[in-house]
Amino acid sequence: MEEAVEETTQESRNEYARNLVWTTFYFDEKTVNTCDVLLTRQFLVDRKLLKKSLATEPVGQDLEAVKAKEELEQEMGKTEKTDSDEKLPTSFGSKKTSRPLPRSWLGWIEKMDSKAYWESINEYLIYKEMDEQGQEELLHKAVKNKPAMILPCHEKLKNHADDFVEIGAKYEDPGQRMEALAKFLERRCHQDFLALWASARTTRCRKYLAKMERLGIATGLDKKKFTVPDDTVTPVIDSDDSDDHGEEAAEEPQASSSVETQPIYDVLYEVYEEGAHLEMKLGAKSERPQAQAQPSVEEAATPVYDMANFSFAYDPEKDAQLLASNACELFHMDKEIRKYWFQRYRLFSRLDQGVLMDREGWFSVTPERIASHIAQRMVTRPGMVIIDGFAGVGGNSIQFALHGAYVIAVDLDPIRLKCAKRNAEVYGVAEHIEFICGDFFHVLSQQRFQSGQSIIDAVFLSPPWGGPSYIFEKEFDIGTGCTPNGFDIFEAARRLTPNIAYFLPRNTKQNQIVHLAGPGGKVEVEQSCLNKKIKTITAYFGNLCQGAAK
Ligand code: MGP
Ligand code: SAH
């Protein structure tokens, strides 16, 4: 068993993790309804396995296959050149100009409240602005009481000289006049403060969105939401980030109703390491390819099996078409599968030792190095019980078992479960896995899994994403993109345990993951970067989340 774990970690000395961003999402204006999110990136290496996969030539004059192979070869080339930390870019986008004043305002104004601000400046302003007769004494006091932070617009309150004269003219009594002018000043200061406070928050949220985009993270958040929810004239705080400036000033303020309909109200964040940006192929591709000869996954009819007579034992004759090492002949005309063939040993390093895969297995199996890393994180003690709710051909179940867990592998499709069972035998861990052919929801509703009696330590979820075309959407929707609905899947798992790892596309909407964690929740979203390309993400909940108490 150890040998098999070692096989997948030979290159692991070159691997490392990075914390990218820590975020708090506010679900509404009450600060108690928050969710903490940690975005991390795990750099994994499987160059040797990729190199081995690329060693075969495409069959005949298959130009598409040549192209698929060339793309992967480029990935190899890039990897070899950018093997070490130092080679990573050292800043987000373009260099920043140094304008220290606006930056200090952003942090300061958000921590201040309007009342406290007025208290800190009122003496100074009143002495300064009321100095109608130019009394030396008042001027002296004003200078002496100047607060450390005063908004630039309040240094120039003389701009309101007309208002002052108008208000002043209404009162003959100097005491009353003074009081009226002080009230006017206070109102004006509150208005200015609140407008600037909202503007600072908008700037912060916009910066967050811009940075997430650059990190290759689909936020699922609407940029328009993060505008000042008020149509009063707003003094705009200058952003010192040259990479995202311009946008805020250009856009019209939104009506507050758009804020109410948005699920996430506000965001606080901290970028751990500015140099974490990577240039790589991410998110939506520009165009969908022409219609394929093969039916899409959604169109393909679900075969009906005679379960009473179905055998999960491998039959070398009857099941020959499942032998992964023969897939080149079986699938070489299948354009969708071809690119996975050129990555085959990174899917299963023991592919030539009898591994079985059906068509869906090829494009949905978790690459071995990623599955091994997830297992390393999830299996914290020998014998712990993990449900692999969508086991497929066993990529994850096998790694959980190799790392010492007892696995309950569930899959609706008997053929794929047969592959998983056989593959577990190839890796010598079949005895550590219980295979259940059935619907995830149905299996979880069984008496032995009900909470209270449950012995389940964690659940791993890797449902179908609608086939390889998931990447043609700019952002992946957990609800409609997963089959069955990804929110329902998560809810069913949560009834069993809070310790859930959710394996999702790299373009998944981040705000939906935040919603899964919910108010008061916490989640770690880990990008799995294989040879410097982000392949997938895994969202860890409960005690699987980094820093959670075990
Ligand atoms: P991919 O994006 O289709 O491949 O899937 P790749 O090689 O990154 O393609 P490229 O053209 O973008 O370079 C990447 C990985 O996601 C696969 O190896 C699978 O592990 C996983 N994966 C893909 N799909 C379509 C599914 C799915 O439907 N379900 C699950 N659970 N995993 C999938
Ligand atoms: N992680 C797996 C791949 C999972 S692919 C691996 O590494 O091999 C998703 C799997 O979910 C498919 O095999 C599909 O048959 C299965 N599936 C789809 N709907 C299901 C359901 N309702 N219950 C259980 N399994 C389901």
UniProtKB/TrEMBL annotation:
Catalytic reaction equation(s): a 5'-end (N(7)-methyl 5'-triphosphoguanosine)-ribonucleoside in snRNA + S-adenosyl-L-methionine = a 5'-end (N(2),N(7)-dimethyl 5'-triphosphoguanosine)-ribonucleoside in snRNA + S-adenosyl-L-homocysteine + H(+); a 5'-end (N(2),N(7)-dimethyl 5'-triphosphoguanosine)-ribonucleoside in snRNA + S-adenosyl-L-methionine = a 5'-end (N(2),N(2),N(7)-trimethyl 5'-triphosphoguanosine)-ribonucleoside in snRNA + S-adenosyl-L-homocysteine + H(+); a 5'-end (N(7)-methyl 5'-triphosphoguanosine)-ribonucleoside in snoRNA + S-adenosyl-L-methionine = a 5'-end (N(2),N(7)-dimethyl 5'-triphosphoguanosine)-ribonucleoside in snoRNA + S-adenosyl-L-homocysteine + H(+); a 5'-end (N(2),N(7)-dimethyl 5'-triphosphoguanosine)-ribonucleoside in snoRNA + S-adenosyl-L-methionine = a 5'-end (N(2),N(2),N(7)-trimethyl 5'-triphosphoguanosine)-ribonucleoside in snoRNA + S-adenosyl-L-homocysteine + H(+)
SUPFAM superfamilies: S-adenosyl-L-methionine-dependent methyltransferases
Location(s) in or outside the cell: Cytoplasm; Nucleus, Cajal body; Nucleus, Nucleolus
Gene Ontology cellular component list: Cajal body; cytoplasm; nucleolus
Entry similarity comment: Belongs to the methyltransferase superfamily. Trimethylguanosine synthase family.
Known role: Catalyzes the 2 serial methylation steps for the conversion of the 7-monomethylguanosine (m(7)G) caps of snRNAs and snoRNAs to a 2,2,7-trimethylguanosine (m(2,2,7)G) cap structure. The enzyme is specific for guanine, and N7 methylation must precede N2 methylation. Hypermethylation of the m7G cap of U snRNAs leads to their concentration in nuclear foci, their colocalization with coilin and the formation of canonical Cajal bodies (CBs). Plays a role in transcriptional regulation.
Protein name according to UniProt: Trimethylguanosine synthase
Source organism phylogeny: Eukaryota, Metazoa, Ecdysozoa, Nematoda, Chromadorea
